TrEMBL record, chain A:
<dbReference type="GO" id="GO:0009401">
    <property type="term" value="P:phosphoenolpyruvate-dependent sugar phosphotransferase system"/>
</dbReference>
<dbReference type="GO" id="GO:0005737">
    <property type="term" value="C:cytoplasm"/>
</dbReference>
<dbReference type="InterPro" id="IPR001127">
    <property type="entry name" value="PTS_EIIA_1_perm"/>
</dbReference>
<dbReference type="GO" id="GO:0016301">
    <property type="term" value="F:kinase activity"/>
</dbReference>
<dbReference type="Pfam" id="PF00358">
    <property type="entry name" value="PTS_EIIA_1"/>
</dbReference>
<keyword id="KW-0808">Transferase</keyword>
<feature type="domain" description="PTS EIIA type-1">
    <location>
        <begin position="28"/>
        <end position="132"/>
    </location>
</feature>
<keyword id="KW-0762">Sugar transport</keyword>
<keyword id="KW-0598">Phosphotransferase system</keyword>
Automatic annotation (TrEMBL), chain B:
<dbReference type="Pfam" id="PF00381">
    <property type="entry name" value="PTS-HPr"/>
</dbReference>
<keyword id="KW-0963">Cytoplasm</keyword>
<keyword id="KW-0598">Phosphotransferase system</keyword>
<dbReference type="InterPro" id="IPR035895">
    <property type="entry name" value="HPr-like_sf"/>
</dbReference>
<dbReference type="GO" id="GO:0009401">
    <property type="term" value="P:phosphoenolpyruvate-dependent sugar phosphotransferase system"/>
</dbReference>
<dbReference type="InterPro" id="IPR000032">
    <property type="entry name" value="HPr-like"/>
</dbReference>
<feature type="domain" description="HPr">
    <location>
        <begin position="1"/>
        <end position="86"/>
    </location>
</feature>
<dbReference type="GO" id="GO:0005737">
    <property type="term" value="C:cytoplasm"/>
</dbReference>
<dbReference type="InterPro" id="IPR050399">
    <property type="entry name" value="HPr"/>
</dbReference>
């Protein structure tokens, strides 16, 4: 008889259409060194951020460049559109949801104007990371071409 | 133990400063909590909680520590809170 508890595995789809790369490609040491959390970064080719899983909006930052989606398992995914984009004070970003909302995998969360953000001199590479490392047993990352709401980008084994 | 600190970072406590606070708080075994002037209290060891406070430049936040290393934690987390990140 085996009484070993089956591990919960949460699959996260890419929140953006583009190319998934290693976090060390992000020109911000706090993200590149995994200081904030482990994950990947997406180089977007389309300006829409969608939810990587079913869950609840744990936090939408008031300058709309970043949000956290919480999954029932306790996994929390932080997505941060661009680097230093907090300085845009919301310009170029259109939130479609608010903190506390229930969301479905693939549901659009934020629209962002890639040309505008880049014209202001900010990179648009978007880190997608684990906001609460303490529930993560193991994280499997995928790189390469991603389609928002469809391609699996991260697989989280929950503690 | 507790002490009140003031946010000095011009863009407030967004993802990066919140990550820095979380990282520092997580290095201590003791309980580390943050309390805003309106009474909202969260753990400093969770990203969502820290961001939920929505701390802006000039806001005051009280760090509350309890347990092993509480004095060191209070000082270390307070230093991060008063840091300028840009």
């Amino acid at each position: 008889m085996f009484f070993k508890k089956k591990k919960t595995v949460v699959s996260l789809v890419s929140p953006i259409t583009g190319t998934s790369v290693s976090l060390d490609q992000v020109p911000d040491p706090a993200f590149a060194q995994g200081f904030i959390g482990d994950g990947v970064a997406i180089n977007p080719t389309q300006g829409v951020l969608v939810s990587p899983c079913d869950g609840i909006v744990a936090h939408m930052i008031d300058t709309y460049h970043s949000c956290i989606i919480g999954h029932d398992s306790g996994v929390e995914v932080l997505m941060h559109i661009g680097v230093n984009t907090v300085e845009l004070k919301g310009e170029g970003f259109k939130p479609l949801i608010k903190t506390g909302d229930q969301v479905k995998q693939g549901q659009p969360l934020i629209e962002f104007d890639m040309d505008f953000i880049q014209s202001k001199g900010y990179p648009i590479i978007t880190p997608v990371i684990m906001a609460n490392a303490e529930v993560v047993e193991n994280l499997t990352k995928s790189t390469g071409e991603m389609k928002a709401g469809e391609s699996k980008v991260l697989e989280v084994q929950v503690k | 133990m507790q002490q009140t600190f003031t946010i000095k970072n011009p863009t407030g406590v967004h993802a990066r400063p919140a990550g820095a606070i979380l990282k520092k708080a997580s290095t201590f075994a003791c309980k580390v909590e943050l309390e805003k002037a309106d009474g909202t209290r969260v753990s400093a060891k969770g990203m969502v909680g820290i961001l939920k406070l929505g701390l802006k430049q000039g806001d005051q936040v009280t760090v509350i520590t309890e347990g092993d290393g509480e004095a060191e934690a209070l000082q270390a987390v307070g230093e991060v809170i008063e840091s300028i990140f840009e």
